[in-house]
Amino acid sequence: MHVLKTIRPGQPGARRFEHRFGRRLCAVRYRCSPCGNKVLTTVELVVDEREKPKPGMSLAAVNAYRKSEAIALCVGREESAMQKLIKQSGGRWSRAGQAWVMRQDTACTLGLAHRIVDGLIEKCTDIGVSIEL
After folding, report:
1. H/E element, 66
2. For residues 92 and 133, is the Cβ–Cβ distance under 8 A?
3. Domain hosting residue 100, numbered range
4. CB of 73 within 8 A of CB of 117?
5. pLDDT tens-place string over residues 111-124
């Protein structure tokens, strides 16, 4: 599809999309359809952001390290079945952080990725996060 016009955030024509997508918006593009009868409006969004690997380190090694990192999960007191599942999977309770601590790959396998709280692992000082969970 041929690009007719590209508009950056802040320019006229992109403001309504800025309200909708916020800071994730990179560009708005107007394209001509393959048949040539229509004009299509597309947006380019940022969906993920992470550190660039250091020179000489492969992206696979970085991803493997991230998956093995310890993370903190927020689980309610009344969710005893969920707590039992986490404990059976090797998770540990942190009194200091008031959260469950386990490996990121295990949490994702159990379908608990939405319960990960960023930055909470720093408060879990009573569990050595450097040891294998």
Report:
1. helix 59-68
2. yes
3. 62-123
4. yes
5. 888 888 888 888 88
